[in-house]
Amino acid sequence: MILRPVIKRIAVRNLLSAALLCICALSSPAQDFRAYSKAAVDSLQQWYTPQTGLYNTTGWWNSANAITALANYSRIAHTKKYRSIFKNTLHAAQTGPKGAPGFINSYYDDEGWWALAWIDAYDLTHDRRYLQTAASIFTNMQSGWDTTACGGGVWWKKPNHGKNAIENELFLDVAASLANRARTPEQRADYLAWAQKEWAWFRASGMINSDHLINDGLNYRDPGHCTNNGGNTWSYNQGVILGALTELNKAAPDPTLPATAEAIALAAIDHLTDANGILHETSPAHTGGDVPQFKGIFSRNLMLLNEAFPNPRYQSFARANAQNLWTNDRDAANHFGFYWAGPFDLADASRQSSALDALNAAAALH
């Protein structure tokens, strides 16, 4: 009789322990995506060159994306370890042997990537030098806005070459992001006006096709009558717009913005993945530094959309791609290749930072 209360308490305690174990098993991922991200970062940083502030084996704009991936990893891992990298790149990438003062060059899309990188660094560190750099870059980007061809939009290359999706998506993303971080109502209103003007033009441009995917750009042989060029639906074109519309909706809520972002996100998942849900490009191009960077950009922007508007399909996509990268597209040194479904092809900083974006996306879910 005396033992019954004790036995009962033990039984209850065992049941509670079992329940807690079940909860932990359900709430923890089967694989440690944060550990995968750390392994990817450790390998990525072997290509970092302090003298230039850039990443060897890849290009100028790719290094901006690597900095963005590093900032996102730092946020997920709650680490300050890489703050010296951001500080060094801010200086060396402007003054070093491959530098561009003010992060200004001949391409408006390159400038947009660096502006977004410094906005991420600002969000992480709250150091206003990064935000000021992004604002200065955006001032230069504004000079690319032109209404003589296609009624608006930013040119791709200075002075007046190409009206494409990517530089205009970046222009929208930077403008909306700066509006959300502006210090004064006047600044906020100015950035928001640019973002809304860009989105109104982009939405009407014809670059979003009937499948809700974004083609590469516009034909503008007749400046007054521009049409969708039918170019490839690169994964990064489907990605940047998701982050841009999320930022714009934060600045000026409008139910059509998340609805449009969802349509594009789901179209990309439906059309740009294989039977196992692994992201790939519809074009066979994969050499150089550009195309290998694209898929990671989609992954990280999909997770920005998911943070604002959670969707189980986005989350399943992130987990499946991260796990497949780790299992089928990795060498013994934790380098990741171009083919996320496998097999591993070769290692460079473009492929590595793109994979890091995908691993960060999965880690951010937990």
From TrEMBL:
It comes from the Bacteria. SUPFAM superfamilies: Six-hairpin glycosidases. InterPro entries: 6-hairpin_glycosidase_sf, Glyco_hydro_76, MUG_Protein. Keywords: Signal. GO terms for biological process: carbohydrate metabolic process. The keyword Methyltransferase does not apply. Residues 1-30 form the signal peptide. Pfam families: Glyco_hydro_76. This is Glycosyl hydrolase. It comes from Edaphobacter acidisoli.
